[in-house]
Write a structure and sequence with these properties.
Blueprint: H1 6-60, H2 67-76, H3 84-147, H4 150-153, H5 170-183, H6 187-200, H7 236-251, H8 254-264
């Protein structure tokens, strides 16, 4: 029978102590490694959340209230001073708030797009109605001219239709093209128109009269031509559009207007 001596017991105790110490050191190392991994994950999550929140805040300008998200971002920006558990809480909060902000921005954009589409459709309808009205007026004017051919063939007092110029000016060329496209008036009417506005203004966009008449067609007052365009004071095209409409509505054709001028000295 073996008898353990005091020395043996002491050695055994020392061995057990060393084994326990080694076990504790291992556990401590494992805990340190786990802590480092947790901190690294928290740092990565915080940076990703901050990046997503920044994008959401930028997109929200003028579209959504991002004040709560901005407050969470401010708290999360010092993540290097926070415990991982607190970082994860702030990350969850910031991501939820960013998601809500993005949803509000998307709704804002949807409504804005629908409004823009409605406005565009309304403008298109208005333009189509305007074109249809102009076409109808042109057809009516053309029919009136056809039913009363005398102005086409006669200039009025002179008994002859003025011949159109062989080399029209830029403004006259604009008028020739517009009157043909909008009213169906041909070369004979163009000759009357050239004579008419030669008499009235010399085809000068800036021609003015003490009476207040202005421009190529001598609109009285000149501001009437604003109905054809905001640039009525300087644009030959705008003035011509207004003048042709005036002639069609009052005299049916340019030759009708020229006949009136020859008879009365004005139109």
């Amino acid at each position: 029978m073996l008898v353990r001596t005091a020395a043996d017991e002491t050695a055994a105790s020392i061995a057990a102590t060393e084994e326990l110490t080694a076990s504790v050191d291992l556990a401590s190392d494992q805990l340190d490694a786990h802590g480092l991994m947790l901190t690294a994950r928290a740092t990565s999550d915080a940076e990703a959340a901050l990046d997503g929140a920044a994008q959401a805040i930028a997109a929200a300008r003028g579209k959504s209230d991002a004040a709560e998200l901005e407050a969470s971002v401010a708290a999360l920006q010092v993540y290097d001073l926070l415990a991982p558990e607190r970082i994860f809480e702030l990350v969850d909060l910031a991501e939820a708030q960013a998601s809500a902000v993005r949803a509000e921005v998307a709704e804002f954009d949807r409504i804005a797009a629908e409004r823009a589409a409605a406005e565009k459709a309304a403008a298109a309808r208005a333009e189509a109605e305007r074109v249809a009205a102009e076409r109808a007026a042109a057809e009516q004017a053309n029919q009136s001219g056809q039913s009363a051919p005398a102005p086409e063939e006669s200039g009025g007092g002179s008994g002859s239709t003025p011949a159109p110029p062989s080399n029209p000016s830029e403004a006259q060329a604009i008028a020739r093209d517009l009157m043909a496209a909008r009213y169906g008036w041909g070369p004979a009417q163009f000759g009357c128109l050239v004579a008419l506005w030669n008499y009235e203004s010399g085809w000068n966009v800036y021609a003015s009269n003490p009476s207040g008449a202005y421009g190529i067609p001598q609109a009285l007052p000149g501001s009437k031509m604003a109905s054809a365009g905001a640039d009525w004071e300087t644009s030959a095209r705008t003035q011509i559009i207004w003048g042709l409409g005036y002639i069609a509505g009052r005299y049916s054709t340019p030759c009708g207007a020229w006949a009136h001028v020859e008879a009365n000295g004005w139109y």
